[in-house]
Specification:
The chain has about 230 residues and is α/β, with parallel strands linked by helices. The chain has 6 helices and 11 strands. Strands 3, 4, 5, 6, 7, 8, 9, 10 and 11 form a 9-stranded mixed sheet that branches. Strand 6 and strand 7 form a beta hairpin.
């Protein structure tokens, strides 16, 4: 879904006061890097596009330097079919000027993810300042209850994830404010991202499920099939 990623990149740049990068330049860089990366046909890679204001002073001001674009790709192992998550005591600020922006401000994520990994989990989940479910360090969250698939709305402060949007469009998931206790009450919990696709959760804090739930397992299968058929939806 490269086109969706590039639209989000341009939107994030505008929020940060940067000129949007020239799309054809980014696409050309992506093509060159993917071609140069030693991956077999069936291997997976993580592609990262970083766009900045360029060289600046040792402070928060900006200079009039030219913007920089870095595209990198590394091979990655596929995620296992299910995953484990930990809620952390820190909150996302849905009123932050960076709410919903995909940026390089990853320090909070680094600290939260380290805490989750120390507890044997692959992801950390944040509430927002209202006490509602927000997002993971690099994922969006869905809960399943009474056959409905729900996810926090964008005004919760969560990132507008590409996989999140596709799950909403393809499978009819619905945005809803979700208090943190809804995680403990959910029939199923899922997280989504561009590297995980749809990832059913089988352990959340002290709660465990014996296996992926029927809805999460179905969405994971159907998402993989549809994503293979629609490379740039």
């Amino acid at each position: 879904a490269l086109s969706r990623h590039l639209r989000r990149l341009a939107a994030s740049a505008r929020v940060l006061g940067l000129p949007a990068p020239a799309e054809h330049v980014v696409r050309d860089a992506v093509a060159q890097v993917v071609q140069a990366t030693s991956l077999a046909a069936d291997d997976l890679g993580r592609l990262r596009i970083t766009y900045t204001a360029g060289r600046g002073p040792l402070g928060s001001e900006r200079s009039d330097a030219a913007s920089t674009l870095v595209v990198a790709c590394v091979p990655v192992r596929p995620w296992p079919p299910t995953t484990t998550v930990l809620t952390v005591p820190w909150t996302r600020n849905e009123r932050s000027p960076l709410a919903g922006v995909k940026s390089t401000s990853y320090a909070e994520n680094v600290v939260a993810l380290a805490r989750a990994q120390a507890a044997g989990c692959s992801e950390a989940l944040f509430a927002n300042s209202r006490g509602d479910v927000c997002e993971g360090t690099g994922s969006n969250v869905f809960v399943v209850g009474a056959g409905r698939v729900l996810t926090p709305p964008l005004d919760s402060g969560c990132l507008p994830g590409i996989t999140r949007a596709l799950v909403i469009e393809w499978f009819g998931a619905v945005e809803a404010d979700l208090p943190m206790h809804s995680l403990a009450q959910a029939d199923e919990v899922l997280i989504t991202s561009s590297t995980r696709d749809v990832h059913p959760v089988v352990r959340l804090d002290g709660r465990t499920w014996p296996c992926a739930g029927p809805i999460g397992a179905r969405l994971r299968r159907e998402f993989a099939t549809r994503a293979a058929d629609e490379v740039d939806p």
